[in-house]
Specification:
heterodimer; A: mainly alpha; two-stranded antiparallel ribbon; B: alpha/beta; Rossmann fold; Alpha-Beta Plaits; six-stranded mixed β-sheet; four-stranded antiparallel β-sheet; 14 strands; 33% helix; elongated
Chain lengths: 253, 308
């Protein structure tokens, strides 16, 4: 295994995040804080608690998950799309690096950044509301699993995209709506039966529900199903990435 | 001498149906400077891209120092450095960071001393902390070379290395290529500048429409295919070429003061001696005489034109 190459790519990706610290870290923290202030204060004044949890505390896992999903996709998709766009991908393709090493380095870099961001948002939220984390191991497990899965998904988007517009398409039109409708700011048990059933087709519901359970021990769907769905999505992404590299799809002519 | 790069029966047809390479066979000798010449779209870059692993071939085999580029890609690729035609660098990285990144990518342990030497050799040391975006075109080209040399390759591909660079930088690059060759690095360059191949190459390959149409030692090629010109400065200008000399391929300069005879120096009877006799018989006197070899450029143009 070419560990030096993995480290070189990983370090370069992390350096890029610190170079663009305003865009990478500060901007998502500010926008999440704004969500927190608007939703927590405005709506929280009318909904005092859900499932025995204060509304402000209830939305924290959803807010973290919202940033985690969008930033994982954005970090990974941009990381692989940019070299394609400027042409410097030639160096990666001509280096003695395996596909697995490329994925570990890029996805590892993207996931690390979004995990750091998730933890920063968690720390920021703790300034607004008292937080309890009943299952810290599972909280970290969901955080890491979701970051890796959606970084893989972002990596796929970055390879698929032929333009910056396409790069934004999936996060903007699919991921963000699914996250908003996936129970970030409410419990799906609050919905009418028919909409609750429809919502169960939204994969993000399982991520948020499982993550919230790790905080408060309460969930919309069973934790086992949440974990299972996350692992299924991870396996789907791994399969697609393996196919991309086997065929050279949009990488090698 | 054993070849360091062996290309055998390599073909490439793109998804669009365009066939870029047809059954290409080529062996590159260890330590030589090989110039691959060809018009635009001839398949030069496709061939290099296949060897370097950027483009998948449709058929054929390629080995680098005995390592198959697919089965043993790590060993094969670690021997190769590539300087592509386009200036493709992460614009926001510093010179130092991007060259060290390239070294790490090729699995080499960090060696700041070596990277410093490469940057100094390419006159980039003063710019080591500058971001790539702030460099001039010539410096970006040097940076591309520094990246390619960072992992100490044994084979260096230079795809149109001096396209768009000024004369001074071109001379520097030629000097650098010669130094690398002295260190045992095999150089394969593609170029539009025939004088570049003429000045540097040991051997020349000509590719046209995806086929290698000629591979030859440069000196031998120029001897075999080169034509010579005999230029006579006349003592008294002529108004036209005399009838008695019509069997020779002669050209008269517009002012009538210079007569040029082009001939094949490989021919059994080049006709120089008989021309001299006929000039004397016709009373045409000359005050100076000069001979010139045809350039590689003329040879190349003739070769490519000859293709159907």
């Amino acid at each position: 295994m070419n560990l030096r190459a993995v480290w070189a790519i990983y370090r370069m990706e992390m350096a890029r995040a610190f170079r663009t610290v305003l865009q990478s870290i500060v901007s998502p923290v500010i926008s999440t804080s704004l969500y927190f202030v608007v939703f927590g204060s405005a709506i929280g004044s009318r909904i005092t608690e859900i499932d025995g949890i204060s509304y402000g505390a209830f939305i924290v896992p959803g807010l973290i998950m919202l940033s985690l999903l969008t930033q994982s996709i954005s970090n990974a998709s941009f990381a692989i799309y940019f070299p394609k766009f400027v042409g410097s991908i030639y160096e990666l393709l001509s280096a003695p690096v395996s596909y697995l090493e490329i994925v570990i380095a890029y996805v590892g870099g993207a996931a690390t950044k979004s995990i750091i961001l998730g933890l920063i948002i968690l720390a920021t939220a703790s300034l607004f509301v008292p937080l309890t984390i009943l299952h810290p191991f599972w909280m970290l497990a969901f955080l890491v699993l979701t970051a890796v899965t959606f970084s893989l998904f972002g990596f796929i988007i970055g390879i698929w995209a032929k333009s910056f517009e396409q790069l934004q398409l999936v996060p903007l039109l699919i991921i963000t709506p699914l996250t908003f409708l996936g129970g970030s700011f409410y419990s799906i048990n609050m919905l009418p039966e028919v909409w609750r059933t429809v919502t169960l087709f939204n994969p993000v519901v399982y991520l948020i529900s499982g993550f919230r359970w790790s905080f408060y021990g309460k969930s919309d769907v069973s934790v086992g199903v949440s974990l299972g769905m996350t692992v299924v999505f991870l396996l789907v992404c791994i399969t697609i990435v393996a196919w991309i590299f086997r065929t050279g799809y949009r990488l090698r002519s | 001498m054993p070849s360091i790069l062996s290309i055998s029966g390599v073909s490439k047809t793109y998804a669009t149906g365009f066939t870029a390479l047809k059954e290409v066979n080529l062996d590159i000798q260890r330590g030589e400077i090989f110039a691959l010449l060809g018009p635009n779209g001839a398949g030069k870059t496709t061939l290099i891209s296949i060897v370097c692993g950027i483009v998948n071939r449709s058929s054929g085999t390629v080995t680098v120092d005995g390592h198959d580029i697919n089965k043993d890609y790590r060993a094969a690729r670690s021997l190769i450095g590539l300087v592509p035609q386009e200036l493709t660098i992460d614009a926001f990285e510093s010179v130092w960071a991007t060259v060290n990144y390239s070294r790490g990518l090729f699995g080499k342990p960090a060696n700041h001393g070596f990277v410093e030497k490469v940057l100094r050799d390419l006159s980039l040391w003063d710019k080591k902390d500058a971001k790539a975006i702030t460099l001039s075109g010539g410096m970006k080209r040097r940076l591309m070379i520094a990246k390619a040399l960072s992992h100490e390759p044994r084979i260096l591909f230079l795809d149109e290395p001096t396209a768009g660079v000024d004369v001074e930088l071109r001379q520097d690059m030629w000097a650098m290529v010669r130094r690398l060759r002295e260190d045992g690095v095999t150089i394969i360059l593609t170029t539009h500048y025939i004088e570049e191949a003429e000045a540097m190459a040991d051997r020349v390959g000509v590719i046209n429409r995806g086929e290698i149409i000629l591979v030859e030692n440069k000196a031998e090629l120029m001897r075999k295919l080169g034509r010579k010109r005999l230029v006579l400065e006349l003592r008294n200008p002529l108004t036209s070429i005399p009838e008695a000399l019509s069997r020779y391929a002669l050209e008269l300069s517009p002012d009538g003061g210079q007569l040029t005879y082009t001939y094949d120096n490989q021919a059994e009877r080049p006709g120089v001696a008989s021309l001299m006799r006929d000039l004397e018989a016709g009373g045409i006197q000359f005050r100076d005489i000069d001979t010139q070899n045809s350039s590689l450029e003329e040879i190349f143009v003739n070769l490519v034109r000859r293709e159907p």
